[in-house]
Amino acid sequence: MSLPNISEYLATDDLTILLGLIAATVFLVNNLYKPQPLVHPILLGRQSDVGRARNPGESAVYRNYSTGLMGRFPVRPGKDVHILADLVRPETEAPRTLWSTKITNHNFQDRVAAVGTGLLRLAPLKPRESGVLILLNDCIEFLLADLALASHSIVSYTLSSSTLLPSVLESHRPNAIITHAFMLPKLLELVYDTSDRTVQHTIVVVGEPSPQALASVASNITILKFADVEREGVRVEKILSPIPKPTDVFSISFYEAENGLIQGAQLTHANITAGVAAIHALLPAANAFTPLDTITSAHSLSTTYGRTIAYTALYEGTSFATLVSSAAYHAGDKPTVLDSKDAISGTQYPIPSPTVIFLKPEHLKAIATDVIKQGARSWLLYPFAWRHKVSGVSEGFVTKESLWDRVLFDGARTKILGPTAATLRATIVSGGPIEASLMTPARIALSVPVINVLSHPLVSGPVLATHAFDLQDFPLAKTKSQSVLPAHSGPPGINVEVKLVGVDDEAVEKGSDPVGVVFVRGPPVGKLVNVDGYENIPSQTTDDEEGWTGTGLRAKVQTNGSFVVMTD
């Protein structure tokens, strides 16, 4: 029996050629059109630079990989920025809208100078001696007063919550108080209860106080209208004070710690400029803030982090507004619903549609839930759209320009977010842990970078922050008490160092991830003070010799240098 000729096995027909072409086309399309990661996976595999040595009971020192162990910390966003006043750049001439006011930087600087002069003349305040309590919700008058006081080296006090007012008013007697007209009656009662009638007080009111409130003013209290103070500063020659130093304290921001103690963050000009530099670095260089952006924030200016966000907007030349829920003071009951409507409530002001929003975890969860629920109404297209978007995210890629966005998700986002859905390009979330299972649905629902930030009342910038294009979705991990760990918060910010204290040395030596209390140090970290004055805080929270400050939070460091905050 003769062997078959090899040519018989190589014989082809039209069907064989067609099937071969189809297979080659499918292979090429799958590889050429497969979404590429927005950031190289190697960069996400090592997000922190780790010190080579550690002390017993502590982890090594961690820095952001982009800074490096030997790199210098960025302490200001620009070479010409040294103090708060430098954040308002005179070379930026285009107007932008701050809440309801359209204003240029030149006019803003003029108003700051007028307010400062008016306060010195009418309050009267003394540079480097006086202190002023700012009891204002977020508004342009807050920024004007804050910058005016800082330019004359007058320390301002802010409160993260109205419940702190009686304690702070009793322990830190201010020379003047700036507040809203609707708060005047309650404030007068507190002043009468906490001070002697022979002590003189000055209250500057934003808005028009009611006749009833004015009628109840005692003889030792002087009421000034903010508009009259500014008008006085415009009328007379401006008063100039010595230029503050970057290390000068300009404000103390009071907050209630987790242990119930009222504490304060003593902030210098350098703390805020370093915080602005850190927030500026949250977005990649190719997607940096521009004057065309509009920023809205859920964080009150009375908090350290919220104030730094506002100064970042000032420096970048963007329009800016805050959400309804950011208000610290209310005429009636405080609204507590952090939902999708509140997330876009900044658009109640005449600002351009927001492009970058600073939210809280509750906002992110509400938006993701509402957008996905809206998209799921299209029962035929939704399964295909969801599968393709999940596939893109798993490959490290997300976009609002895909076919499935145009067909399905754009309409769902617009239904929930309105015009913001089209202009939004980044979402920065802080103020609590985010559920790990929420991250992928949120990235699909918004289809823009979602940056998870760990903030703290003592730190003006991010303590920890994820990379804008880090779309990794790790398996859900659990603690010893079987509670699910939240999403990771990324590596340290670009200008802080982080270490963990109270780690299990034996477990670490065996290769386990370090777990302990987060300590932080760096230019954005303010000094901790008690409500009763400048007192030392117990050593469990600070290490004064090396400048470390405890946050009171427990965290775990993963092998790639990202941190996960423990919730139990």
Automatic annotation (TrEMBL):
Check the UniProt entry and state the signal peptide residues, or none: none
Question: Mind naming one GO cellular-component term on file for this protein?
Answer: endoplasmic reticulum
| Sequence ranges assigned to domain AMP-dependent synthetase/ligase in this UniProt record | 101-525
Q: Which GO terms describe its molecular function?
A: long-chain fatty acid-CoA ligase activity
Recorded hits in InterPro entries, A to Z, give: AMP-dep_synth/lig_dom (IPR000873), ANL_N_sf (IPR042099)
One Pfam family in the UniProt entry: AMP-binding
**Name of the protein this chain belongs to:** AMP-dependent synthetase/ligase domain-containing protein
Organism the protein comes from: Candolleomyces eurysporus
